[in-house]
Design brief:
alpha/beta; Rossmann fold; Hect, E3 ligase catalytic domain fold; 17 helices; 16 strands
Length: 596
């Protein structure tokens, strides 16, 4: 009986070997560079063992497919090519180390199972096990499922390990910022220092940080400096400008980094690596390179002449700037002290400086936004000297002010009395008001059934058409709408108080005064040019005529008589013709004013 069993096994082995010799096999080798397969045999080891299997079983190998690619997702080039060749009939089976070399995902695993069940793949030979179309498919699916689950579990474990590393204070990214490298020599120690300094690059990058902290260099300057110091990448080429911007905006250099937790939310961690700059220095650099805006100024400066003048050369507006600087007594560095109280170069506070040089200058200049402009700036002091001279020329006496006020009021009353257009305007407004009241009353009449709907609609349309026609007629009459007396008095107030107003009032009143004095105010070669407003010019011309006429009628030898102007008849004086000029200039300049 024992002999019969032995003979049967020998015959079975011989039949199996003869059958396998008639099949053609593709040899498939795969090694992943990722963490899931780091414990697996290398491609050379796999090839060595599989050659032993093929020799023992006498298998015919017609092709070899090898790749270094993870099998956790579909899309392997060599694997897909091998299956395509099998589908074309160029091979009958697959020879590999383990089944998980073929697939670790459901898509590729299902494809292998389907081809095997349909006898397209006639045999899969692995180390210590083989698979045939007639076998139970459950065992193959279990092995593929275990391979897939291994990938999923390993992914979770790796993610958990990376997060744990971040929580310990070590940046888990494979690519560290310039100046730092991973420490691979201390991997087996209990508490290893996982990030160490890249000695050559660390020194260069730290020098660049010190330079940019002075505030005298831009990102482009840092690139040029880095190139000159030999800061290059692995390929030996200099870094681009954006790399330097990333360096100076990376919080890793001041001891912090961001990494996602298990929920996918980025968390800020405190690193254990050696710092290159302090937190305060990092924040200062962010203001320098522009990634952060400085907080709102503690002192807001108001420029009274900003937005009034324009450049006489290019037409751009004139803007204002203030230089408030201190020259450090320790390092002689000049810095702005508007928003800081210490030297950015040596950190000496202004309080500790002995008699520091303080520069506080406000100047006005062309914005030069349209085109290049050759106009130079003018200081606030130089500009105010010119404005004071202009304002001092606008000065009328109190006597003239009171006298012309009375005469203008008489002229205004006479205009109202004799103005036919004004009477017409009042008539038109009265008629419009009556028609509007009638239209409102139509709704009451319709509600009381005094008129039907057709009559209501007809009468309402007629009233609305008449109102629209009267309004159009009213718009065409503009002369009598001008309350020129109110405007004239405002210009008289300017003429009598301009000098005092300019000296004492706030910047908004100053700006309003300058805008009323003249128009088209331009700065050319540090000199102010403008066109004086017509109403003000008419008042000043009238004042000149008044002074000339007054000198004729005023007795020079009798002091008692001085100041007595009862004998002056305004109707006979030549200067009174200037009143009409004042009225006309105001009417033409201010066409949108209405009677008070």
């Amino acid at each position: 009986m024992t002999i019969l069993i032995y003979i049967f096994l020998v015959l079975f082995w011989y039949t199996h070997m003869i059958q396998n010799q008639t099949l053609r096999y593709f040899l498939y080798l795969r090694k992943s560079s990722e963490s899931e397969d780091r414990q697996m045999a290398s491609i050379e080891d796999q090839l060595k063992e599989i050659n032993k299997i093929s020799s023992e079983l006498g298998l015919t190998i017609v092709g070899v497919f090898s790749e270094s690619k993870s099998a956790k997702a579909p899309g392997r080039k060599e694997f897909n090519e091998m299956l395509c060749q099998i589908e074309k009939g160029k091979a009958d089976g697959i020879l590999c180390w383990k089944l998980n070399r073929l697939a670790r995902n459901p898509v590729d695993g299902g494809r292998i199972s389907w081809l095997l069940q349909n006898n397209i793949i006639k045999h899969i030979q692995c180390y210590g096990r083989d698979y045939k179309p007639s076998d139970n498919v459950l065992m193959m699916q279990v092995e593929f499922g275990m391979a897939n689950q291994f990938v999923k579990d390993l992914s979770v474990d790796i993610k958990r390990g990376v997060i744990a590393k971040a929580e310990r204070g070590w940046y888990p990214s494979p690519n560290l910022p310039l100046g730092y490298i991973h420490n691979k020599s201390n991997a087996r120690k209990t508490h290893p220092i996982e990030i160490i300094l890249d000695k050559k690059r660390f020194t260069i990058v730290k020098k660049l940080w010190k330079l940019i902290l002075t505030g005298n260099y831009s990102i482009a300057d840092m690139k040029r400096m880095g190139d000159s110091l030999g800061l290059t990448g692995k390929n030996g080429r200099p870094y681009v400008k954006s790399t330097y911007h990333d360096i100076f905006s990376n919080e890793f250099y001041c001891g912090y980094f961001h990494w996602k937790n298990q929920k996918g939310i980025k968390i800020r961690y405190k690193g254990k690596h050696k710092l290159m700059v302090s937190q305060e220095e990092f924040e200062e650099v962010q203001y320098i390179i522009g990634t952060k805006k400085r907080p709102t100024r503690l002192h807001k400066y108001k420029y009274p002449y900003k937005g009034i003048f324009s450049c006489g050369e290019c037409g751009c507006s004139i803007t204002a700037e203030r230089k408030h600087q201190v020259r450090c007594t320790s390092c002689r560095f000049k810095f702005s002290c508007i928003n800081r109280d210490d030297c950015p170069k040596c950190n000496t506070t202004i309080k500790k400086m002995i008699n520091p040089t303080v520069i506080d200058i406000t100047y006005y200049r062309c914005t030069k936004r349209k085109q290049p402009c050759s106009q130079k700036f003018i200081t606030k002091k130089e500009l105010e000297l010119q404005l004071e001279q202009i304002v001092s020329d606008i000065n009328v006496s109190e006597e003239f002010y009171n006298f012309i006020n009375e005469e203008l009021e008489l002229l205004y009353k006479n205009d109202i009395k004799n103005n036919e257009k004004l009477q017409l305007i009042r008539t038109l407004k009265k008629h419009i008001s009556e028609l509007q009241n009638r239209t409102k009353g139509l709704a009451i009449m319709r509600a009381d059934n005094e008129i039907n709907s057709e009559e209501y609609a007809t009468i309402k349309k007629e009233n609305l058409d008449k109102i629209e026609s009267l309004k159009n007629e009213l718009k065409e009459i503009t002369y009598a709408e001008i309350n020129w007396l109110t405007v004239a008095k405002s210009y008289l107030d300017i003429a009598v108080n301009a000098k005092e107003t300019f000296k004492k009032t706030d910047y908004l009143t100053k700006k309003k005064l300058l805008l009323n004095i003249g128009s088209n105010q331009q700065l050319t070669d540090k000199k102010l040019h403008f066109i004086r407003s017509k109403p003000l010019s008419a008042i000043l011309n009238c004042y000149d005529c008044y002074k000339e006429q007054k000198s004729r009628f005023e007795p020079k030898n009798h002091l008692v008589k001085q100041g007595d102007y009862d004998s002056l008849d305004p109707q006979n004086l030549e200067w009174c013709t200037g009143l009409d000029v004042v009225r006309t200039s105001i009417v033409k300049t201010h066409k949108s004013l209405e009677y008070a």
